[in-house]
Amino acid sequence: MNVRRNAAALAAIGVLAAAAPAVAAGPSPSPKASVPAGLYGTSDPTYDGVWRQSLTLVAQRTLGYRPATAAVDWLTGQQCANGSFAAFRAAPDASCDAKTMVDTNSTAAAVQALHATGGHDAAVTKAVDWLKSVQNKDGGWGYNPGSPSDTNSTSVVVGALAATGADPTGVRKDGKSPYDALATWSIPCDQDGGGALAYQPDKKGKLAANADATAAGVTAALGKGFVAQTGKAPAADACAKAGHPTPAQIADNGGAYLAAAVAKSGHLMSVMPGATDQPDYGNTADTVVALAADGRTAAAKKAYAFLEKSAGPWAAQTGPAAYAQLILAAHAVGAQPGDFGGTSLVTSLNALGPEPRMQAAADKQAKASDGSSHAGVWWSVGICLVAGIGIGFLLSTRKKQQS
After folding, report:
1. Which of 187, 203, 258, 360 is 20 to 30 Å from 252 by CA-CA measure?
2. b/e map of 262-294 (b: 16 or more CB within 10 Å)?
3. 43, 319 in Cβ contact below 8 A?
4. Cβ proximity of 281 and 307 under 8 Å
């Protein structure tokens, strides 16, 4: 997830050549962009506004909350007329044009969020149609329309397709599906990094193992999006050789690679150029989801235990997307996000923007306001019965007195 979020910033300055997992930077004020009402977080939204809002809404729905109307309206207001989303549009009332830097990652994330919140079928359909229209000939997607396909972008689009009930295998360009693309980025078992997925081939066509891309690829190969639960345990712990791996083999081989990567310390390390030697909390959270989805429960719980012990300060510094990632990791392993190392991920996330409501409470209020509450109906019936009995009693008494 961190690669996809930071890729927007790299693309904006024209240096998106090859991405690597990144430790998310802390909030940094910007003289160019202010945080609009309805958006979660306080940092500059230029490069991650739609992404962090989408993750927040998905996390809230996963917890059983109904997101605030203002938060959902902010996200729907970011959509372009053709269905696509940019990372952030400071003037959403203005029409999108050729200069609007729409991207597949923001669009696919928004699809998952708006589908989860419900009631936005038209917006979701337009966004999915746009994603299908910019699919590359290899079956995958790049960050921006027309850019070379990569594992992360392809995976988040697969997540959007799966979330809306579409079968990714049926979404094809020149006869190739996204799973064909993922198979080409899956490193053969007998090579360095075997089982992992590469972000994309280098200029010579070589594949280099990338843990963040692998986590994204595993969940996509399993037909999952941001939200996943513990799946069936794989048939084997080791990488299984295959000339053109099936989606299940892509997932199991990638899961084996990730399990080995976190076996010793419980976390991944940051490999972004220039980064200090430190844990990569965001990609570790994504790895928890991938491992759980692939049925590697022990490895997933070990990585989650590390996050529970160490990731609190990172989330507090990074903001809503980080809290959402940790909530989704907790959901994947069946942990309680309300008690995360002594703090509540739920309270911390909800405090960063418009307050959501629990779904049950929201439904109860809605029924009461539209007169459809069963309790309200029976209360009215009861009042009428009492009134009728009272009137009958008075009439009966009056008749007796008259006689």
Report:
1. 203
2. beeebbbbbeeeeeeeebbbbbbbbbbbbbbbb
3. yes
4. yes
Q: How far is the C-alpha of 281 from the C-alpha of 288, rounded, in Å?
A: 11
Residue 24 confidence (pLDDT): 36
Among the residue ranges 91-95, 348-352, 355-359, the one predicted with the least confidence is 355-359
Q: What is the residue-wise DSSP string for 198-266?
A: BSS--TTS---B-HHHHHHHHHHHTT--S-----PPPS-SSPPP-SS--HHHHHHHHHHHHHHHTTTTS
Tokens describing residue 162:
């799966």
Compute φ and ψ for 299, nearest 5 degrees. Answer: -65, -40
Cα 61 from Cα 229, distance rounded (Å): 15
What's the pTM value of the predicted model, to 2 decimals?
0.84
Q: Each residue of 276-304: pLDDT tens digit?
A: 789 999 999 999 999 999 999 999 999 99
**Token digits of residue 204:** 């010579």
166: nearest Cα among 157, 175, 154: 157
* CA–CA distance, 170 with 196 (Å, rounded to integer): 25
Using an 8 Å Cβ cutoff, are 254 and 186 in contact? yes
Between 88 and 242, the more confident residue is 88
Sign of the CA dihedral with 393 first, then 396, 402, and 403 last: negative
Tell me the C-alpha distance between 298 and 154, whole Å.
28
Whether the Cβ atoms of residue 135 and residue 102 lie closer than 8 Å to each other: no
